[in-house]
């Protein structure tokens, strides 16, 4: 397996390509947002907190779009589990990807967990993360979780993005040593 990576602000993000529920493919390299692409990595169908987060993301999709931000959500789930997420969580209208390999999750700096045998969790899956990527493919902001809990609120992300755009606020956290 790939080693755990840290993607720093102001640096090029790793490539990201995956299939979408309902057909088609999504590629970060092909995105052309006015300001940012918000990539939401979610744990998978087994996660009720992900359900709530993705339903909120869908409800805010137009607000993000009006701010010049494209949104997409993706997990390591297979196509069947991803389709269940879309259908049972009522996510029609949200670009929902599936099948990212755990090597790719580690390349993006996500944490990987082993599923609990007494649960509906898959054998292995990535923990959640949010990445706001500039049109040139560089990272502006990230939030990577080791647990499903205490995620940034999407309304906070949207509010911060509006401030960043209005004030031309630079990405922070790019230094790796002093």
The level of helicity is: 25-40%
CATH superfamily: Glutaredoxin
pLDDT < 50 stretches: none
CATH class, anyone? Alpha Beta
The tally of structural domains comes to 1
Assess the beta-strand content as a share of residues.
15-25%
> Strand order within the widest sheet?
2-1-5-4-3-8-9
Overall CATH architecture: 3-Layer(aba) Sandwich
Tally of alpha and pi helices: 4
Distance between the termini: 30 Å
* Alpha-carbon Rg, integer: 15 Å
CATH fold name: Glutaredoxin
Q: Quote the average pLDDT.
A: 96
Structural class: alpha+beta
Largest sheet: 7 strands, mixed
Task: Give the strand tally.
Answer: 9
Shape descriptor: globular
How does this structure look, described?
- The protein is α+β, with helices and mostly antiparallel strands and 178 residues long.
- The protein has a single domain, classed as 3-Layer(aba) Sandwich (Glutaredoxin).
- The protein is built from four helices and nine strands.
- It has a seven-stranded mixed sheet, covered by helices on one side. The chain has a two-stranded antiparallel ribbon with strand order 6-7.
- Strand 8 and strand 9 (139-144) form a beta hairpin.
- The two termini are 30 Å apart.
- The model has no long low-confidence stretch (mean pLDDT 96).
Show the helix and strand layout.
Blueprint: E1 17-20, E2 25-27, E3 36-41, H1 48-66, E4 69-74, H2 79-88, E5 96-98, H3 102-107, E6 112-114, E7 124-126, E8 129-133, E9 139-144, H4 154-167
Parallel strand pairs: 3-4, 4-5
Antiparallel strand pairs: 1-2, 1-5, 3-8, 6-7, 8-9
């Amino acid at each position: 397996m790939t080693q755990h990576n840290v993607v720093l602000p102001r640096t090029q993000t790793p490539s990201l390509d995956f299939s979408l529920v309902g057909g088609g493919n999504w590629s970060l390299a092909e995105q052309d947002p006015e300001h940012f692409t918000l990539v939401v990595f979610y744990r998978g169908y087994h996660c009720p907190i992900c359900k709530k987060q993705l339903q909120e993301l869908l409800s805010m999709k137009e607000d993000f779009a009006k701010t010049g931000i494209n949104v997409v959500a993706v997990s390591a789930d297979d196509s069947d589990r991803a389709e269940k997420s879309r259908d049972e969580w009522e996510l029609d209208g949200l670009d929902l990807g599936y099948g990212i390999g755990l090597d790719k999750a580690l390349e993006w700096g996500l944490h990987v967990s082993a599923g609990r045998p007494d649960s509906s969790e898959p054998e292995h899956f990535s923990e959640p993360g949010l990445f706001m990527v500039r049109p040139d493919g560089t990272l502006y902001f990230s939030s990577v979780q080791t647990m499903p809990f205490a995620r940034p609120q999407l309304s906070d992300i949207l509010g911060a993005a509006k401030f960043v755009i209005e004030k031309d606020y630079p990405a922070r956290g790019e230094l790796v040593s002093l």
